[in-house]
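Researcher: Re-running this chain for the archive, since the previous output was lost when a drive failed. Same request as before.
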Amino acid sequence: MIIPSVLAVILVVLALLLRSIVAPVLLVATVVLSVGATVGIAALLFENVFGFPGSDPTILLIAFVFLVALGIDYNIFLMTRAREESAEHGARNGVLRALAVTGGVITSAGLVLAATFGALAVLPVLFLAQVAFLVGFGVLLDTFVVRSLVVPAAVAIIGDKVWWPGRLAKGPTAAEPERELERV
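Model: Regenerated structure tokens:
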């Protein structure tokens, strides 16, 4: 019950923030994909490499909450900038411009957060080691793959329709004459 509730609330918040339906659905889907990949890889490594005896289901819930919160945080940072850029440059160029501006900050924040959670892995408590790996690995996956590649690629494929039903779904707005004069 917790997982669908969290995702539904996040979907509504993103829809209000981005004034779109398609973009929030895309962003929630990428976060679910990232969490699923993280849990799958962690399960393989926990059993076959680390030799952990098993995981408490509570660990997965805690990791889910952390990863969704952080993934959505990075999504908001990237996509609010992409929305601003899309008004003038369209969704494809807008998301690339947004990634160029926010990518370094998102990557740095992801590295710091993964290192912080990684520090928990050295403690001799199985619960903390598992949470540390899940969140640390998940943040790195989200930072370097999902936020840097998957989201921009998906927005580029969908194009301006990512902002549907908002006005940006029709493409970039024509520049105002005063703004054109300022550039010259």
